[in-house]
Amino acid sequence: MAKEMEGYSLPISSVDLCFDGNVFVQAHFSADLFLQEQRGRATLETMRDDLGSYLKVLRSATLDLIDHDYADFVGLSSSLVGLDKAVGKIRDPLGQLREEVMAIMSSLDEALRGMKAQLEERRALRAKRRQLEARLNAIGCLRLLDKRLLLPCLDGLPVAERSAPAFNQLTFCMEKCPPDDQLNLHASCAQGRLMQLLEGMLLDAVIALQGEKGGVWTSGVALRILRLYASLGEASIAEELVGRHVVAPALDSIVKDASSSGLRLSDVYHSALAVLSGKLGRLLTLTSCENRDSLTVEGFDFLANSFWPQFVHMLQLHLPNVSAPGNPNVFHQRFCETLSFLEELERLCGSSEAIQTLRSKPSYRQFLNSWNLQVYTQIRFQELAACVECAFPEQPYPSHGFDSSSAGRLLGLNPSSPIHTGFWLAPTSSCWQSISRCWHDDVLIRRVGHKFWKMSLQIVARYGQWSKDILEHQLGSVKVREEGAKEDMLLLPLCVHRDVCQLSWHLEHHLLPTATATLLSATSDQHHSTIGSLLARSLDVALEAFRSDVEPLAVRCIVQIISRWSLPHLSQCRDIPRLYRRTNRAHPTGPRPYVSSTLSPPLAFRSLVLTSFTAPEPRGEVERGGEGAWVDAPLLRLIMAQIFSEITLQYHSGVLEVLTSVLKMEQSLRRLKRIRATDGGGEAPSAAADDDEKIRAQLALDVHHFCEQVESAGVPRDEVKQLPQLVELVDNAMRGRVGSLQ
Prior knowledge:
With 742 residues, the protein is an all-alpha fold. The protein is built from 26 helices and no strands. It has helices spanning 2-7, 31-38, 44-79, 83-150, 156-176, 181-211, 217-232, 235-261, 265-279, 281-286, 302-318, 328-349, 352-359, 362-369, 373-391, 404-411, 426-438, 449-480, 491-520, 528-566, 576-580, 593-612, 619-623, 633-679, 687-712, 723-734. The radius of gyration is 55 Å and the shape is flat.
């Protein structure tokens, strides 16, 4: 019936409705939403009529459904007749069966509890039996040990070899026995006697190994004793015994003598290695992991557990200030000696596992931490930074700037014969010497090589900042100097620029390879490419300050000095109209002297630089400008172009001003001529027009001569700002194109 209901569909009305009948059987049907949606489709009266019609259809469908299922409802009621009697007949047998099952389950539970109790009792009896057997076995082992260890004997080694298995058996049995103070005390006494016997034999064997010169008998005895210690699980006791009775007295004597007599630390290390090889050499061979034959025993590390703890203890006891942290020279020497000593110890370890064991010792890390490398690098940085700062001139700088005398006095200049390792400035030489000293064998510690690289970059940055400051001061002095810039003020920017280039070359070709090789030697192969690229990138960032700040500033300072030296002569350009107007001078045939005077400073500078070139030189020297060159050829061309640009800008302004005034004069003369012609007067003399032509011709001769001199200096006119426009200006003026003056 349920399936029939699921398959039953709503009836369809014969009349067209304004709504869908299926909306009423939806799970989220809402009357308000239904009315809100239907009001836009039909009126309320129409909706009322359609709902009434659909209600009649539903009622009719309901009656049809009841009629369809009526026979099933009647059959269901008739099939339930007599069901209560059938249920009553089977109720009593089922209840009786349930009681019987519960009784059986109760009996089984009681039997199971009894069986568990008996099993637990049997388990306890077995445990007590095992404890009793272990106790009896332990007592038997103790009696056997007492019998063997208390009897006097000439050779204790066989006794120890027979007693060791019994002691191991005793240890095993004691773990199974219940706590017993008397039995534990007896076992401790037996262990003490066995350890005492083994200690005496071990010390005798070690002493015999020190004096043995041949044969394997003593080595065999020592090997048997060590195997006994290993079988008993007491290797640490053997290592501690050898360290306390064999190593400690020898090291104590050595370190005491060094403390009292002032022996060098290298002598202490040498003597300690002699003790290690002399007293423990054969013992290390017998326990070496490299020898995998029958004449070795594993489980011992006398170097890490016997020698090393005693050595560190003696140093801390008798030489607490062995690192000398306040004296960097002594610290460096002793630290390098310590590293060599540790490398020798690791070589004697024989295997990578033994080396890792030694390095993992707390005393090893404590010993290395006692060498405070951070304090050492700070002291070195203070020393090197102090040397650099002392080389810089004291402030305040001269208000009039650095001329040749003040620069030579304050900066230690010697351009004719450099005495500062190829540099012309003492601060540059001091910076390079400090950087080089960072990587000297007497200063550098490879473990902190990255700190020395940082130190070098800091010195470079400090020098760059000083160069920038002093050039800015020099440039400001040029701008405010009343008497004009002097040629001797060129000395400082030239030397700064040259030294910056020299220093950059040294940093790239000397410092970077040295630092890269040093840092790569202290790292694994897989990091080599990364470290090399990081070093090159960091140095390039440091040198970028030179290329972007210092070098352009030095060039600008040179340009300002020379251009300010030349610009006063350009004022004579404005005097040309006065020379030709109403003076009856002849037509100009050559340039005026002011052009040569204006170009004299830059040309003299060029000549000075060209004479400073050294030829021939090795290729490497030419690439960095040579030891005696002021600047290289490309830079000279750049400087000359900028100087000529500064001069040309002023020259263009002066020529334009003169031509403009001449043009205005011509216009005035034309107006005057027209006025006179209107009044009936005679023709005005053409002398003024001839004077204007002479002025234009003189300007054209001067400008063309200026351009020729610029090009003769190796600078094309296109590289000089406003020079093509200046030439075009005077040419247009000569052709009478007055509209092209602007």
